[in-house]
Amino acid sequence: MQIQLNHLMPIPLQDKLRQRSSDIWNQDVTFKPGSFVKIKAPSGTGKTTLIHYLYHIRYDYTGKVQVNGQPWQAYSKNEIALIRQQELSIVFQDLRLFEQLSARENISLKRVMQPKAFYPPEKIDEMAARLNVTHILEQSGRTLSYGERQRIAIIRALVQPFQWLLMDEPFSHLDEENTQRAAALIADECKARNAGFILTDLDNDQHFNYDVHYHL
Ligand SMILES: Nc1ncnc2c1ncn2[C@@H]1O[C@H](COP(=O)(O)OP(=O)(O)OP(=O)(O)O)[C@@H](O)[C@H]1O
Fold this sequence. Notes:
Blueprint: E1 3-10, H1 14-18, E2 28-31, E3 36-40, H2 47-54, E4 61-67, E5 70-71, H3 77-86, E6 88-91, H4 103-112, H5 122-130, H6 146-158, E7 164-168, H7 176-193, E8 196-201, E9 212-215
Parallel strand pairs: 3-8, 3-9, 6-7, 7-8
Antiparallel strand pairs: 1-2, 1-4, 4-5
Helix pairs in contact: 4-6
C-alpha cells in the first residue's frame, strides 16, 4: 500500500507553519512500503493532526493524501472501511478504548471485526504476556492506568492485518522496559507482514532501527 503526500497543509495552521521549514508540510513525500518511519516534532506542531489526516478522520487541509495512487476523497465509505480493516491500523494518541468493556473485549472487538479471523483468540494472551498486561485483561477499561491502556491499544492495533501502522506518541506513558517490550512486539508484527509504520514523537529515540527520520 502506497501513501503519498502532495503539498499537504493544515488550514488552521497555515500561517504558523509557513514561518518554519518542514520535511512533511507542503512537501511531496512518498512513504516507502515496509519502512519504519519516525516523525519528530515539538509539541503543538501538528503530529496528531497529521496522523488524523493519514487515517482520514480529519479533512481540513489543502494538498493531497494519496492512498494507492488516489486521494482519500476518491474512496467510498465502504472502501475506506475496508482499507482500515485490511491495510491500515492505528494507535491513537488518546487511545480510544471503550471504558465499558474489559481490556480483552476492547482487543477482541477489533479481532472479530475481521471477515476472516486474522489471529486465533490465544494470540491476545501471547501478546499480553509479552507486554506485561496479562493480569489486567479482564479489568474494565475505566479502571486501567494510562500506561496499561497504551499497551492494550497497541495490542488492539496488532490483531488485524495491515500494511501500514500509524502510531501517535505510543510510548508516552511507558517506562523503559515496557517501551522496549512494546517496540520489539511491534517490530516483529510489522516484519511478519512486510508492513511499515509511521510513528510520531517529541524526541529522538533508539526504540527501532528506523529507515527514515522526518522533522515535522
Ligand atoms: N481543529 C483545529 N482547529 C484549529 N487549530 C487546531 C485544531 N486542532 C489542533 N489545532 C491546533 O493545531 C496545533 C497542532 O495540534 P496537534 O494536536 O496536531 O499537535 P501535536 O504536535 O500532536 O501536539 P502534542 O505533541 O502536544 O500532542 C495546536 O496548536 C492545536 O492547538
